[in-house]
Specification:
Elements: H1 2-22, E1 39-40, E2 50-61, E3 64-73, H2 76-83, H3 86-111, H4 116-137, H5 147-169, H6 179-200, H7 210-230, H8 237-243, H9 256-259, H10 280-301, H11 303-309, H12 314-320, H13 324-330, H14 337-360, H15 363-409, H16 419-453
Antiparallel strand pairs: 1-2, 2-3
Helix pairs in contact: 1-15, 2-15, 4-5, 4-7, 4-16, 5-6, 6-7, 6-14, 6-15, 7-15, 10-11, 10-14
Length: 458
């Protein structure tokens, strides 16, 4: 999915550059230095009083279509219809939710970094079911079997969930003796393959787009979580251990206070770890718990079903990609293409997991990597919004509003129903959405408050 979005974004940028370079003077107004279409506000109360819209006429110049952009006022009825546009309302709510979430993340990470893992668990519990629902509508639910979800989202969600169960009920599972090894494996995956995939897939922090926002969270949140546990969010692991005694076996056999003495050095051996703990053990975990089951499920058990239903997979997207990697893979015999794909995937995991061993011993390098990774997603998000998204978003919304208003003027509601029934249905739908949100958010919020109140770090 991320590869497809990346290709769409790149093609959109090229189209934007082409249309900007070739636009001609509009008969009504020429807007210089602005990538159309953008909303124009005359006053705080006027709403969308004027927008830049694409005219329907185009001329041929050098064999290519050249668009003409102009500014014209919307009628009051069109303005009113545009304000009620469901897509605009939905996206503004998503953007508000994303902004509030970022503020909460930053506040918890700065004030109580030892509690960030609880926030990570809560959001994984909300976003993963939503991701499944989103993918299932498009026939892409098999993306959820990819390693980015298994090695980061599921691994970290299960780990933090078991930890939350232990601190709230005192129950220990059979995995408790392997605490140190499992945390190092999660550290290697989160700081290696997952974080590096942020760059490979060009993840973009677009808050009003749930697909982009969820991809960023799944690739970066595990890395931030293990950073907050390993280094106590900059306060040292001793701060985390005081808040949650014995919860994470980060430095078994070592006094956390002693382990933090060299934390600010470029290289710190206060909490030593062996290379095999970040390369050998994670790779064995990767092979036996993901790669072999993934091959058997996708290329043996479900192979015929996938071919009949046309379900999307990351392997299928990679084979069909019009790039050097896709062309090289298509040149291999069909029978061995899955094995070749998985071997290259394994090579990526081995090389990137080794980075985790370096970050384990260097707080400055690990912190810089996390900051740069998050900054990279912000830059990509800004580029997407202003170079691609703004080209088509308002044009589509304005045309949709005009079409609905025209239909209403002709005595036909946009949905083919009476206006009163439409408003009543919208009101009932809003109430149902509110109840669903409350049913999901309230229990998680209660857990978060209870755990923070019981935390010594509070």
């Amino acid at each position: 999915r991320d590869l497809a979005l990346s290709r769409e974004r790149r093609s959109g940028v090229q189209e934007a550059e082409s249309s900007c370079c070739k636009r001609q003077a509009a008969p009504e107004a020429l807007i210089e230095g602005v990538v159309p279409p953008l909303a124009r506000h005359h006053s705080a109360t006027s709403g969308f009083s004027a927008v830049m819209a694409a005219s329907s006429d185009s001329t041929q110049s050098d064999g290519e279509a050249s668009r003409t952009w102009s500014v014209r006022k919307l009628t009051p009825a069109e303005q009113s219809e545009l304000k009620r546009d469901k897509t605009l309302v939905r996206d503004s709510r998503w953007n508000t939710t994303g902004m509030v979430s970022l503020v909460v993340f930053a506040f918890v990470l700065g004030r109580w970094p030892w509690n960030f893992w609880i926030l990570h668990f809560i959001f994984m519990g909300v976003l993963l079911p939503f991701r499944y629902y989103q993918f299932r509508e498009k026939g892409q639910e098999l993306y959820l079997l990819d390693f980015c979800y298994f090695g980061g989202a599921y691994f970290s969600a299960v780990g933090t969930g078991i930890a939350l169960l232990r601190v709230t009920t005192g129950l220990e599972t059979w995995l408790a003796p392997y605490n140190a090894m499992l945390f190092r494996a999660l550290f290697a995956f989160a700081s290696g393959p997952l974080a590096v995939s942020t760059y490979l897939f060009s993840n973009a922090m677009v808050l009003f787009h749930p697909g982009h926002a969820t991809s960023v969270w799944i690739h970066t949140s595990p890395a931030i979580t293990v950073w907050a546990v390993r280094w106590g969010g900059g306060f040292g692991f001793s701060a985390f251990d005081r808040a949650w005694p014995g919860l994470a076996a980060v430095c078994p056999g070592v006094d956390p206070v002693v382990a933090d003495e060299c934390m600010l050095d470029l290289w710190c051996n206060g909490c030593p770890a062996k290379r095999r703990e970040f390369i050998l053990y994670p790779v064995l975990f990767y092979i036996f718990f993901w790669m072999i089951p993934y091959y058997l499920v996708l290329f043996v058990v479900l192979r015929g079903w996938i071919e009949r239903t046309g379900k999307s997979t990351l392997f299928g997207d990679y084979v069909a990609a019009d790039n050097a990697g896709g062309r090289w893979l298509r040149a291999r015999p069909t029978a061995i293409q899955p094995l070749v794909y998985l071997l290259f995937h394994a090579l990526h995991v081995v090389l990137s997991s080794g980075i985790g061993w370096i970050f384990w011993h260097s707080f400055p390098l690990h912190t810089a990597f996390v900051v740069v990774t998050v900054f990279f997603t912000i830059v990509n998000g800004s580029s997407y919004i202003f170079k691609v998204f703004s080209l088509r978003y308002y044009a589509e919304r304005v045309e949709a509003a005009r079409a609905r208003e025209a239909a209403k003027s002709a005595g036909v509601d946009s949905n083919g129903t009476a206006k009163a029934k439409s408003k009543e249905a919208d009101s009932e739908s809003a109430r149902q959405r509110l109840m669903k949100v409350a049913a999901v958010v309230v229990p998680y919020f209660a857990i978060l408050v209870g755990c923070i109140r019981n935390s010594n770090g509070f």
